[in-house]
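User: New here, any thoughts?
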Amino acid sequence: GWIAFLKLHLYGDTENTHRIIKGYIIFSTFLSFIVVVNMFHPIAFEITLKNHFIQTNGTLFFVIYLGACMVYSVYDYFKFKRLNGNIRFFPIGVFLGPITIGYMIQMLFMPGISLSWISMSLSMCGILLSLQNESAYVDQLTGILNRNALYTTPIFENMHGGIMCDLNDFKAINDTYGHKEGDIALERFAGIL
């Protein structure tokens, strides 16, 4: 889910994004199958009659997969950032930090307690707050920063001027071709900027 979210958020709804996500879905389905089998024959963990969580050697397979996904997501995030510039309001550590800390504590100090759901919940809260923050500063149609973002940056305090752009006869596009085409014109203009 994290890889799918990251790909869609960074690259948008593209064919390449869907191809990569399908590969992760197939592998995640396999891992889910292992968890179902684990209920009848302990492969990764077992729960005793006294409700104790015991990790087996198969747990390492899940931890290695999780670690590989996290390393790949960090690599992909910084590759996108290097190629496309700054990524607005999307600190990757907000998601990966709690998960990494939770799994390290679980593996090293508390092997009898599963911290994965707590870690995931904290991570999802961080991502939702980041996305909410992003929606306050990014225009939903064009994806460019709005004036709220400008007013909250240090650049604004030292700014001595600005540029204002106008689309000539924009009303004619809306009146002649409809608002959907007008939205496309705005999106393309924002892409040019």
